[in-house]
Design a protein that fits this description.
This protein has 188 residues and is of the alpha+beta class. 16% of the residues lie in helices and 31% in strands.
């Protein structure tokens, strides 16, 4: 496993106050239908079905890496090129929908901004969601004006994947698909 050391530069944090043991938490434990990774570096959203991401990491073709914060292992996951996740597509985030994300912000703040950007992209229909479509065969319903019923109850996991994405857009070339984490510095 390759180790990645991330120094987040947040002043005043010198020793862990929380749990330093990794727990299984990530794409394999979440109850989502699809995922959106917002990349601050490439200013793109990467969208894919959760099952497709799981299939990619379970293929065994991608390397597992450890992430360190202040020299403490805080996460593990897989680096997967977006093009290797079946059905993954990227969306260029328009200027009017972009919210600046600073890597020194708290995890919660980066996540809040990523969710807000995703909501804006959904409202503009730049992100497609899977839908269930049912043709109405009941004549009474048809006479009342309903021929097709469309439903989209989709659960989306949004990640601020700060440097993710295609290299040609300034990203690392990968998405980080996390499988475990700990929170030694109690950052939320």
């Amino acid at each position: 496993m390759q180790e990645v050391i991330l120094m987040d530069g947040i002043a005043g944090v010198t020793r862990p106050a929380g749990n330093t043991a990794l727990v299984q938490y990530g794409i394999q434990t979440e109850d989502s239908d699809m995922r959106v990774h917002i990349s601050a570096v490439s200013r793109r959203a990467y969208v894919y079905l959760t099952k497709s991401g799981l299939d990619a990491i379970q293929s065994g073709n991608f390397r597992k890496v450890a992430v360190y914060t202040k020299y403490i292992k805080t996460a593990e996951g897989y680096l997967v090129p977006p093009d290797k996740i079946p059905g993954c597509y990227s969306v260029n985030i328009p200027d009017e929908d972009w919210i600046e994300i600073n890597n020194l912000e708290s995890t919660s703040e980066k996540g809040r901004k990523a969710v807000e950007i995703t909501k804006r992209l959904l409202k503009r229909k730049l992100i497609s969601v899977p839908v269930s479509i049912a043709e109405i065969t009941d004549e009474v319903m048809q006479v009342k004006g309903t021929d097709i019923y469309v439903s989209a109850r989709v659960k989306i996991q949004v990640k601020c994947d700060f440097s993710a994405g295609h290299k040609e857009y300034g990203g690392t070339g990968n998405l980080f698909l996390q499988i475990s984490e700990c929170n030694p510095f109690k950052r939320y």
